[in-house]
Amino acid sequence: MASLSRWLPGRRSLLWVLGAFVAGLLLFVLVLSLGRDRTAERGGASLPTAASPQYAPLPAPLPAAGAGGASRPAKPTGTDSGEGEERPRLVETRPPVPPPSLPQSTPAPAPTAVATSRPEPIAGQTPAPRYPTQALRRGESGTVNVRVEIGPDGAPAQVSVEGSSGSRYLDRAAVDAVRRWHFRPAMSNGQPVSGSVIVPIRFDAQR
Hints:
By secondary structure, the protein is α+β, with helices and mostly antiparallel strands.
């Protein structure tokens, strides 16, 4: 016991140790309070703490189904136009007016040659028609007016009955005879052109 009491510090030494501990504790508290005041002065930032995890907010639940059983989609937020926002306006644009089309010039028809004279039969080249035997037996007589279209060469191009005699035999005999005739063609500005003429053929059974 005598050896243990020798190594133990005295009461006075314990007081010094306790006083030094209390002084150190007060100094620590003072330094800590000064550090907080400086941090507040610089911006009021607090000491970093463990950040809690941030989660995206869940979408708002859809409204209850209507009468048809289909759920109505939620209206998008932020689309309400304020008083200062300008609403879009529909601008009507007219289609461009096509340029006026130029009048198409139609080619002028070629001037037709106008005959200044009529075709005429050439004397000696107009054989007389043959009197049909059937018409003689029946005693048929009459005049056939034969229309003749004559080309620039003076030959008949088309022969037809303009006025009938009342007998088909006499009409046919008159047409056949005129087809063998030769004519002097019509003239226009000194040039032969096509023309037409009506030739009367007389049939008389009493001769």
